[in-house]
């Protein structure tokens, strides 16, 4: 049974969902390895619990370094903006609702990472990471998902029209039965 509004063609929908789920798990494993491994450092910066303080400090370092640090924050969880809707596999959904769900999931995952980092040696909690990660998820979603869904909807509607024509071959006129009266 296929969910309403899901990607058409049973096996294609399953393949997209499975691919999305596998890529999602692989990306989350990479993020966990990158952010939750202990670091051997001689000293650790204090936690940044004031929003935008870290971003201001990065901007004070100058253009190339600030762009690198802010870009890393935006890019870390950005693939979730595409992989979460892909794993869900629905084509007909409100774009605003999809964006809000995906951004909320990205924010919650980023928050979980930041909370887990409190117990990892060498890792520091930074509220700006939460903001940048969530913004990266939302930007990736806006850049890719609406256009991809529209393209897949057009493709599935075109395939549906071709399937209808193939299922109903022309058989000519429908035969009529002459009216039979009552015998005398």
Structure, explained:
The protein is mainly alpha-helical and 184 residues long. It is built from six helices and no strands. The longest helix has 41 residues. It is elongated, with a radius of gyration of 26 Å. The protein starts with 9 loop residues before the first helix and ends in a 17-residue tail after the last helix. The relative contact order is 0.16. The mean pLDDT is 85.
Number of helices: 6
Q: Into which percentage range does the β-strand content fall?
A: under 5%
How would a textbook summarize the main sheet?
none
The low-confidence parts are none
- Rg, Å, rounded: 26 Å
Can you give me a brief rundown of this structure?
The chain is mostly helical and 184 residues long. The protein has helices at residues 10-36, 53-60, 63-76, 80-88, 95-117, 127-167.
Give me the secondary-structure topology.
Elements: H1 10-36, H2 53-60, H3 63-76, H4 80-88, H5 95-117, H6 127-167
Helix pairs in contact: 1-4, 2-3, 3-6, 4-5, 4-6, 5-6
Question: What key phrases describe this protein's structure?
Answer:
184 residues, mainly alpha, 6 helices
């Amino acid at each position: 049974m296929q969910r309403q509004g899901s990607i058409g063609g049973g096996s294609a929908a399953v393949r997209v969902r499975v691919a999305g789920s596998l890529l999602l798990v692989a990306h989350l494993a990479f993020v966990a390895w990158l952010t939750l491994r202990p670091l051997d450092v001689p000293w650790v910066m204090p936690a940044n619990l004031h929003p935008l303080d870290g971003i201001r400090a990065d901007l004070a370092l100058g253009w190339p370094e600030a762009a690198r640090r802010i870009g890393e924050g935006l890019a870390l969880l950005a693939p979730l903006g595409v992989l979460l809707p892909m794993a869900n596999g629905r084509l007909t959904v409100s774009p605003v609702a999809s964006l809000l769900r995906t951004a909320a999931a990205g924010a919650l995952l980023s928050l979980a990472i930041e909370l887990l980092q409190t117990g990892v040696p060498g890792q520091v909690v930074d509220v700006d990471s939460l903001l940048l990660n969530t913004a990266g998820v939302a930007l990736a979603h806006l850049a890719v998902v609406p256009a991809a869904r529209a393209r897949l909807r057009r493709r599935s509607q075109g395939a549906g029209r071709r399937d209808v024509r193939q299922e109903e071959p022309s058989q000519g006129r429908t035969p009529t039965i002459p009216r039979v009266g009552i015998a005398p």
